[in-house]
Structure formats: C-alpha cells, structure tokens
Amino acid sequence: MTSEVSKRESFSGKYGFIAAAAGSAIGLGNIWKFPYITGVHGGSAFILVYLICILLIGLPVMLSEITMGRRSQKGIFGSYKKLAPGTPWFFSGYMGIAAAFLILSFYGVVAGWTMEYVLKAIGGSFSGKTPDQINAMFESFIGQTLKPVFWQTGFMAFTGAIVIAGIKNGIEKYSKILMPVLLMILLLLCARSVTLDGASKGFEFLFKPDFSKLTREAILAALGHAFFSLSLGMGTLITYGSYLKKNENLVPLAIQITIADTVIALLAGIAIFPAVFAFGIEPTAGPSLVFVTLPNVFQHMPLGNFFCVLFFLLLFIAALTSSISILEVVVAHLVEDFNISRKPAAIAITIVMILFGIPSSLSFGSLSGLSVFGLSFFDLVDHIASNFLLPLGGLCIVLFVGWQLKPGDVKDELSNGGTIETGYLKIFLFLTKIVAPIAIAAIFFHGLKII
Ligand code: TRP
Q: Is the pLDDT of residue 94 over 50?
C-alpha cells in the first residue's frame, strides 16, 4: 500500500485468490486427517455424511465468509464491526482466535513429522522393511520426547518466518506449481494401491455404506472435518475475501475451491485404504495411519524411494501453505485491532503455539497415560477446536449473513452490483438462513447427546 487512502491491496486476479484459498484448504486435513478419521469412524457412511456436510453446510459457510470479507474489506473482527456496528457479533471472532491457537499447536506437531519423514525417506530407511517394522519405526519416533518437538519447532519457525517476511504470496506462487505435482503423486499412489492384492476390501470400506457404524461422534466429526478441511469458521476466508476485486464472481470461486479440496481428500482415501487392507494394517490405527501405510505403498513402486521423498516434501509444503493462513488470522488481529507491529506479534504467537503444542507431541510418548474425557491431550485439543469452535464460529457466520445483513446487500455482493445473473441467490439464502444453521445446531446437540 502506498498511502492511507490507497485502496486495499488485492489479489492479482482470481488465480491469486484460488491459489491462496486452495493453499489454505489443502493440507494435512486432506491427506493425513481425512483418511485417519475415516478409518476411525468406519469408512463409507462417514464419508457420505462428510460429503453432505460439505455441500449443505461447507459451501454456504464458505460463500458467506467470502461475501463478508469482500463487502467489508476487513478481517473477521473488522468485518463484524463494520457490517453491524455497535452489535456484539464480533465476539464470535474470539472463537476463531482460540481455534487458531489450538489447531496450529497440534498441526505443527504433525507437520513436523512430515519433515522427519523427508529425511527418513532420503536415507532409504523404509527400504526392504515389512509393514510391522515401518509401524514400529513410526511409533518409536513419535514416542520420543525431543526429536518430534525439535521438528515441530522447526516447522513453526518456518511458518512464523514466512508470516513475518510477508512472503505468503511468494510461497503461494510456488505452491501453484508444486500442488499439481502432489496431485500427480497422489494419482500414482492410487494406481498402485488399487492394484495391490487384497485391495478390493479397501474399496468396500470406502464406498459400500454401512450405516450401523454411524455414531453420534462420527456425525459430529464429519461436520467438524468439513470445517477443518475447507478452512472455515475461523475467518481465514473472510480475510482472503477482503482482498478480492469487486468484479470477481464469488460463487464459481467457492465451488472450485470446495471441489479441489474434496477431490484431494477422496484421492488420499483411495490411495490409502486399499493398501491398508492389502498390508493388514488396522484402519482404526489413528494419526499414524498415513505415515505407516504410504511408505509401504512406495516400497511396491518403481522409483518408490524417490517418490516417497518427493511426497513428504510436498506434504510439508502443503502443510506450510495452510499453517501460514492460520497464523495470519491471529497476527492480523493483533496488528489491526491492537496496533502491535507485525514482527513481535508473529514471534510471540509462534512461541506460544509451539509451547502449547508440546503436550500434544508428548501425548504420544511420555504423556500417553494422561487422558481427559477419555481423550489424549492431542485428541482433546483437536476435538475442542474442530468439533466445537469451528462449527460454532461457522454458525455465527451463516446467521450473520443470512439474518443480519440485508438481503439486498448480499445480492449486491453476489451479483457484483447487479452485473451478473444470480439465479442461485434464492438457494444460497435458503441454505444460509435455514438449512446450514439448523444442520449445524442439530449435529452439534446430537453429538453432545442433548438431542
Ligand atoms: N484446511 C487446512 C487443512 O486441511 C487447515 C486449515 C488452514 C484450517 N486454515 C484453517 C482449518 C482455518 C480451520 C480453519 O489442512
């Protein structure tokens, strides 16, 4: 920005926005978390509920966030304050801040694992190992005290440095080239996985719905993951929407990001589950699932070691383009609303997040005995953030756009001041006002055993 009165910086066209928003959405959520929670919650029926949540809740929330952002030209707090001055809506922004702290604390731990795995793959550690040995290797790594914390700190330092240097856009430019490569490797993995002996069971697990496995927790987890995977409920896409030019058409943008994110998650599922059954790995293994299964698949591929190195490297970068979008939510809040300068804000927050992530990391080792409500510290933090804070933040966002903003303003935003057709406006308003809020509330109370 050149002067106070200059217009807010904007993305250089819609591809800049898509790269940033897709970079935020596509990350560990798609490749690590989606397969692991699908395994824990019994497969196909969970996936079906997840897809319904994406369509009926995720998409309207995403469009609402982008609409708020572009309308107000502000982040989450500024947006609420500018669009509804003098109202308490902005308080819900604090849930987003809390979610950002919690999520990045454990996200950094898992992203740190990908860094260790790049090195392990370079050293050829997986060559000739059996599935059991690869599993033991993973367990012994995450059970240590110092090494995982070292990598977690390293990853968070990268995240902090990028946010401080303000080179997010630079990273997103690289990721525009690198993410298609990740997609290619994922496709190769799928091809190998589905042709393994015994792969068909994995297909059944993924695509033949068994509704008897659908618990309250599974439905709540599917909702929470729709938010997590699409980067919703925290204000990330409000901020990104605020950088969009007034002549971009918001609906196709939201649809494209949603499709890209969902396709990557489903491909990760197809790459993993046939192999899980072929190698006799437990589908309910939890957070270790991807780290144990995929090195095995690479062992059964020509140039497997090479692809394995590349895969974990790209997964690390995918995690980085997501983590910077989370850190940015908190840093932008301190900078915009408290006038703290960017550098000390980012350093302080990164340090707090690292410290808060340490018990999550240790919950796989020295703190494994600790359980709260039957959950490990790692699971507890994820649970509170993904299944509570994000859906509640999202609920506020759809209620705000559906009921607080004037329909004329929403129409103005979606039709770019009346210049494009908005035949879908009625559907969007119906989903935003009624369907999404009721569905979020119902799943939420059902998950809490209130209804
Ligand atoms: N969506 C990212 C992933 O799937 C994680 C993420 C980035 C996120 N920004 C977010 C989750 C904002 C919730 C809210 O890995």
A: yes
Task: Give me the pLDDT at residue 6, please.
Answer: 43
Query: Whole-angstrom Cα distance, residue 358 to residue 63?
Result: 35
What pTM was estimated for this model as a whole?
0.95
By 3-state DSSP, what share of the chain in percent is helix, strand and coil, each rounded to 5? 75, 0, 25
Closest by Cα among 179, 182, 195 to 270 = 195
pLDDT digits (tens, 9 = 90+) for 421-440: 888 888 999 999 999 999 99
User: Hey, whose CA ends up nearest to atom 10 of ligand 1?
Assistant: 231
Query: How many Å lie between the centroid of ligand 1 and the Cα of residue 96?
Result: 12
* Cβ within 8 Å of residue 259, ≥6 positions away: none
3-state class (DSSP) for residue 372: strand
The conformation of residue 375, written as its DSSP 8-state character, comes to B
pLDDT above 70: residue 7: no
Determine the atom of ligand 1 nearest the C-alpha atom of 329: 12
Write out residues with Cβ below 6 Å of ligand 1: 24-25, 27-30, 103, 228-229, 231, 234, 236, 322, 325-326, 390
| Residue from 316, 280, 409, 269 nearest 113 by CA | 316
- If pLDDT is split at 50, 70 and 90, which confidence band does 8 have? low
Q: What is the pLDDT of residue 290?
A: 96
Phi/psi at 17 (nearest 5 deg)?
A: -65, -45
Residues 151, 112: contact at Cβ < 8 Å?
yes
The residue count of the chain comes to 451
Q: Are 241 and 21 in contact (CB under 8 A)?
A: no
